[in-house]
Amino acid sequence: MSGSLCKSLYGFSGEQHQHGLRFEAGEIIKVLQVADGGWWEGERDGVRGWFPASYVQILEKPVSVSPLPEDEPGNSPLPEGWQSYMSPQGRQYYVNTFTKVNGYHTSGSPLHQPDQPHPSLRKPSSDLQSPGSTSPSKKQIKETTLTVNCVTFPHPNTMPEQELLKPGEWSYCDYFWDDKKDPQGNTSVTGFEVLLQKQLKGKQMQKEMAEFIRERIKIEEEYAKSLSKLSQISLAAQEEGTLGEAWAQLKKSLADEAEVHLKFSSKLQSEVEKPLLTFRDNFKKDMKKFDHHITDLRKQLASRYAAVEKARKALTDRQKDLEMKTQQLEIKLSNKTEEDIKKARRKSTQAGDELMRCVDLYNQAQSKWFEEMVTTTLELERLEVERVEMIRQHLCQYTQLRHETDMFNQSTVETVDQLLQKVEPAKDRELWVKEHKTGDIRPVDMDI
Q1: Are the beta carbons of 29 and 56 closer than 8 angstroms?
Q2: How far apart are CA 58 and CA 7, in angstroms?
Q3: 345 to each of 320, 324, 338, 339, 350, how far by Cα in Å?
Q4: pLDDT for residue 340
Q5: pLDDT tens column, 409-422
Q6: Helix crossing, 191-231 with 274-331: angle to 10°?
Q7: pLDDT tens for residues 369-391?
Q8: DSSP 165
Q9: Contact in structure between 111 and 105 (CB atoms under 8 Å)
Q10: DSSP readout, 172-218?
């Protein structure tokens, strides 16, 4: 992979990494190093830095970007500063040598103009005029986008083929861009909120697992306390011989077993319960931070979209006013009407420029939201894997401790088993008789 060339699918600001590499969509980057975690190091225009691997597509061979001849049939002369290329997929590709703006277009004219404000995020258009200008005939432009809840998507009827960011992995960053209706169908939640609800559910499950372990600890502590108390009862303490020795060892094994269960409960608390709670607290902080960050970006996007709609309405009003004054000029010629038309045209042009500015700001906000959504959803994905693996490891630790406890308990009764095997009633009788005998001379018959 190192040394390969890749093409950026999306723009990246580089702010999410200490040594991030900034680039725009459609730029060629040389891969220098591939690291775990989905980050690659690359070089562009002599600048090195790191970027998300999901933002680029590896090229099988270097991209051929030979300029297209301007006199080729079907190619109209380009505005000053624009250069046309052909991508490996056979699509025309334009680069502005002044602003370094680039983009795809199929109408034979570049995507942007160098002399218009904020050209980098203009929508494709075959008309080089400002939205506020008028022309004798208007072309019917086919809708290519559809805005849903302030987010702009490709129109279903003209949607170009999109490649998944992480094909075959069912990654969060590929499947949660649209909003979703709640089960009642009354309100909608964002795709990120759906992801966040899953993470919060996982946090709750982790809390309940910790509570389960806490109850298990209480059981062990109570059991150990009861065993210790039982071992101190003096019942059958006067049993003698090998049986008495086995009985005493059995009572002692209860005390030993109580100690084993106390150690088991202590290890459960330090090696299972506490790590679960600590990870949960950190997990909760991360979720809160991500939620606030993405929510703020979505609010900013909604605000920019509202500004676009307001500017669009203002432009429509200005164009209607210009058309009305133009009609008045056709009916009655006068210097005043001509001045009104010039004024109306100037205001219409200004409204068009304002709309372009608002669309530019909206596109910047959506690009930032998109970039942060990809980065954040990948982070959620990583945290979810980390959470599941952490819980798995600590539950394995629980079973290991439980197994060790059973082994220790078995060892405490092994001595009892051995002594019970050695119980010999005959030997006990011998020892007892020797200690307590009163005489071994038997009585005889009386002599006459």
Answers
A1: yes
A2: 6
A3: 11, 11, 10, 10, 9
A4: 81
A5: 888 778 888 888 88
A6: 170
A7: 999 999 999 999 998 898 899 88
A8: S
A9: yes
A10: GGGS--S-EE-TTSSSEE-HHHHHHHHHHHHHHHHHHHHHHHHHHHH
